[in-house]
Amino acid sequence: MFFAVAAMVSQWFEPHYNARLQFLEAQARILRKRVDANRIVPTPEEKAELLRLGEALDHDVSGVIHVVRLETVTVHGVALRV
Fold first, then answer.
1. Which of these, 4, 12, 39, 65, is most buried using a 10 Å CB contact count?
2. Same domain, 81 and 60
3. How much is the pLDDT for 29?
4. 48 lies in the same domain as 62
């Protein structure tokens, strides 16, 4: 019963979550276009955060990597999958 209710509630929130995510991604694209630097190199702390968040995606970051280049984010010398 709990899982059925949870599934119904998650379906209700999903469109709002997707809209928020799309809004954030659009902002990242806009900022990326306006940055004068050829490269944005994350600090070690920022890289660690990206790795941690990428782990939740099974390191498949296709479609969500907008600011840093894939080559800058690696796991044990192996780039995240796209």
1. 65
2. yes
3. 84
4. yes
Structure tokens of 17? 């979550």
Which residues fall within 8 angstroms of residue 70, CB to CB, at 6 or more apart? Answer: 61, 79, 80, 82
- Cα 8 to Cα 4, 13, 14, 19, 21, distances in angstroms: 6, 9, 10, 18, 20
> Which tens digits make up the pLDDT trace of 6-64?
666 666 667 777 888 888 888 888 888 888 777 777 888 988 888 888 888 787 777 78
- Which residue has tokens 């990597």? 65
Length of the chain: 82
Read off the tokens for 75: 């796991």
Number of domains composing the chain: 2
